[in-house]
Amino acid sequence: MVRRLLRRPVRLVPFGFLAAILFGTGLLMLPWATSEHRYTPFVTALFTATSAVSVTGLAVNDTPHYWNDFGLAMITVLTQLGGLGILTIAALVILAVSRQLGLRNRLLVQAETMEFGPADVRRLLTRIAATVFVAEAVMTAVVTARYWLSYGYPPGRALWFASFHSIQAFNNGGFTLYPDGLVAFSRDPWLMLPLSLGAIIGGLGFPALFEAVREWRRPHRWAIATKLTVWGSVTLLVLGFGALLFVEWNNPRTIGGFDPAGKVLASFSQIALTRTGGFDIIHVDRLAEESYPLLIVLMFIGGGSASTAGGIKVSTFFLLAFVIWAELRGEPDVTVGGRRVANASQRQALTVALLSVALVVAGTVVVIVLTEHVRYYAALFEVTSAFSTTGLTTGLTAELKAPGHYLLIGLMYIGRIGPLTLGSAIALNTRRRLYRYPEEQPIVG
């Protein structure tokens, strides 16, 4: 079975997620999944299941009121399956790639993935599963204690709310049990910091996470992908936090009325969860217009490769930044941390970025056409949120009609399986030629 998965990872990705989505859709359509015990319309169930499996968090209804405990439990299970499945499939893809390479390159790949080879599938997947469940258990324990001791929740209710939001945070799901997201708790560090940290860890990806933990004393020995992911994530977090704090500092509709510590915590948590988790820490529909471009860019970039986060990935974005910098300086090679980046990696990064931009732009145009009196940046925000599987919303998703919902469903699905499918297809489909055409340099610009 494992050999078959390793041989055809490109087929496994889309069909595996599609099967989970259809399974979840069928269960969510049942009357005992809703508070009013009525059958859920197909498009609503399909949207919710896709949002859960793709770990997005967008919803077409009021999640805590529309779904009963069974429905919410199904959303939790689908989110967990989606998050763990993403990590598992990513592991299989990397192992499959290593099998197709020569000995030298195979050793390089294994060095960048904690030296796991094709024979170590079980050990690798066990480590991934253990990391997921330990992280979620720690978050659940801290948040449960806070709900129980500080907010007076009964122990059972505190555990349910804590486990739901911890699973959503680590898997970057974005669903919440509150109509306004986590806005009411935006100044509570005992809730915000564990959930934000969980989302950050889940958004790094297991290759970067494992290597960073193993070589934490010697970061100079990290692989290029780990350096780009870790330092890139830190850079985006710091710059995004500073920019959002500056823009929203005096905005009375968001954090303007908070004390300085509350403003700092709310801004940090929102930025930490913007690229990955999708929780509303600040009312997104009340943000200053200057904040929307910032959040759109962060959502589009997303998190780390082989992580539960979406987007084009941090390593892709910063690799392109190094390519541009090298070109501006007239350097013959692109180097990162003393290592030369292969031309194939540069082309792959450019391909992923350009295809993603084209998809987001096309989706935005369609939403504008389908929706009357919609602001262009609201449409762009919603489409980017769906494609990057973030889950933040200005409220437009709930206002869309069925065609718009189907569009977002497609974007969430493509945004989730697209990078894995495209990346593995490129890596496993290297064509060999016995000849090369003469080189010519066309005029650019």
Characterise the protein shown here.
- This protein has 445 residues and is mostly helical.
- It is 65% helix and 1% strand.
- It has one domain (2-428).
- It has a two-stranded antiparallel ribbon.
- It contains 18 helices and two strands.
- Strand 1 and strand 2 form a beta hairpin.
- It has helices spanning 2-7, 9-28, 42-53, 63-66, 69-100, 103-112, 121-150, 155-170, 189-202, 206-214, 224-248, 260-274, 291-301, 314-329, 343-370, 376-387, 396-399, 402-428, and strands spanning 335-336, 339-340.
- It is globular.
- Helix 8 runs parallel beside helix 9 (189-202).
Secondary structure tally: strands: 2
Give the low-pLDDT segments: 101-116
- Structural class, please? mainly alpha
Count the domains: 1
Mean pLDDT, all residues: 86
* Largest sheet report: 2 strands, antiparallel
> What overall form do the CA principal axes indicate?
globular
Given the structure, what is the number of helices? Answer: 18
Radius of gyration: 22 Å
Ends apart, CA distance between termini: 51 Å
SSE series: HHHHHHHHHHHHHHEEHHHH
Biggest sheet strand line-up? 1-2
Portion in beta strands: under 5%
How much helix is in the residues? Answer: 55-70%
Give the tags:
445 residues; mainly alpha; 65% helix; globular; monoatomic cation transmembrane transporter activity
